[in-house]
Amino acid sequence: TVQSFMKRRGGDAIISKGRKLKRTHAALFADIERRYGVPAGPLLAIWGMETGFGSFMGNQNTISAITTLAYDCRRPEMFIPHAIAALKLVDRGILSASSVGAAHGEIGHTQFLPDNVLKYGVGSQNLRVMETALASTANFLRGHGYAGGPASANKGAIAGWNKASVYQQAIIIMADAIDQGR
């Protein structure tokens, strides 16, 4: 169930810390919401769920992980575009041969796959920078149909972030709880 998933993933702690970070970075979240139409809650819920608010962004070599998945995986059609995108990010100086991220090639505070960095990354596209990662995540959600308001009114956009329905439900519950705890 979504409740057991949230308990296992620290949902209450994500909500509590998310509310504090929302206050601490109020100007940043207000600016992001003005520019992209996405409130703080979904961004904080994703950030908390993906990396514990940046405390662990992975320890796998990004280029190795993504190219291995593109070559030797049950879903090469999914990972080949990300492998090509990762190489483009190397060309741009955003990634290097020694960059690290998650086991499936995700990078930064909110764990973008490389092709999504190219499509939705804003500014420097360096998602190891918190502000860039949060703005890029808002841009991603807007690109997937986020139309303002609470996460619960934008289920399709949240579904664009992660295909697992239990994950989507947890993000929505946490996001709405963060935003309601003004």
Proportion of beta-strand residues? under 5%
* Alpha-carbon Rg, integer: 16 Å
* Strand arrangement in the largest pleated sheet: 1-2
Uncertain spans: none
Please tell me about this protein's structure.
This protein has 182 residues and is mainly α. 63% of the residues lie in helices and 2% in strands. It is built from ten helices and two strands, in the order H-H-H-H-E-H-H-E-H-H-H-H. Strands 1-2 form a two-stranded antiparallel sheet. The longest helix is centred in the middle third of the chain and has 16 residues, at 76-91. The protein is globular, with a radius of gyration of 16 Å. The protein starts with a helix and ends with a helix. The relative contact order is 0.17. The model has no long low-confidence stretch (mean pLDDT 96).
